[in-house]
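Holo model, BJW. Inputs:
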Amino acid sequence: MITELPSGSLIAEAADMIEAAGLTVVSTGAGMSRESGVRTFRGEDGFWREYRAEDLASLEGIRKNPALVWEWYGERLKACQELEPHAGYYALARIQNGKGILPLITQNVDGLHQKAGIKDVIELHGSLRTASCLDCCGAPGVPMTEDLFEELPPRCSCGSILRPDVVLFGEQLPEQALKRAFRLADSCDLMMVIGTSMVVYPASSLPLIVLRRGVKVIEINPEETSLSSLDGTLSLRGAAGSVLPEIVKAVYG
Ligand code: BJW
Ligand code: ZN
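Output:
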């Protein structure tokens, strides 16, 4: 993994693009949280080195092995509650305060953007805030608190198993969030794509929509992705926690 910073001229180019753009939209994935201590899904230290995706992040997986899935979410919830946003989050908050227009689309469920004071966060894959009945008995979302994990799997008052309110493979994304994300991809003047492997649809299609309109994309990722070499992408190879503060320095001094 690349740990150095991209060259000063690439940082300056990104800073110029941000300064010049009107509607700037940010789209983040698991790599954004990596330096705060949240493991990514794929790659060297990804969750799915140990588990198969379909055993954990699917309805079938929850029905087959609810205790394992809840153990996994319990660990992640605890980590997310204890962890703090890194300097990259505060850099994004700074750009948002400066430009006033920086809607942020995220695939992450960890709430770290909000913890750093970033506003207008569009959560495409739900969140770890609540859980609901797997059999849709209609009970309202149950807050995901520690007591939920005393006996696994946690159950709804109707006796069915609860599920975290995140979007699992094969499920539709929240309609309003997805519509807004597509509208932003259709109308933005710049998109910054940070810390995603670009393999999960439909989030991965957003920067492609932007590029197809002839609008630029800035990618921040230590690894190359399918987005990196596309025409119109400025690819900054580095970690979000160091690249974003450098961009802020270049924009605001
Ligand atoms: C750094 C860094 C640092 C490291 N700084 N960067 C065939 C069959 C069935 C379905 C499909 C199919 N083909 C396509 C589909 C659709 C499917 C899909 O895309 N599957 C692909 C895997 C092929 N998508 C869906 O099912 C979605 N729903 C949907 O499309 O509905 C319509 C439909 C239904 C049925 C059939 C077809 C269409 C739903 C997707 C839900 C994804 N859910 C998860 C779990 C969410 C809950 C949770 O968090 O627990 O979302 S899966 C997991 O992947 C999670 C993530 O949000 C998501 C994306 O991962 P992300 O963020 O990109 O992370 P990584 O780990 O992959 O990458 C990290 C990156 O960070 C790397 O690039 C690193 O280099 C980088 N990095 N350190 C910056 N310091
Ligand atoms: Zn129920």
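Residues 39-82+128-166 form a domain with the SIR2/SIRT2 'Small Domain' fold (CATH 3.30.1600.10). The chain has ten helices and nine strands.
Archived with the compound record.
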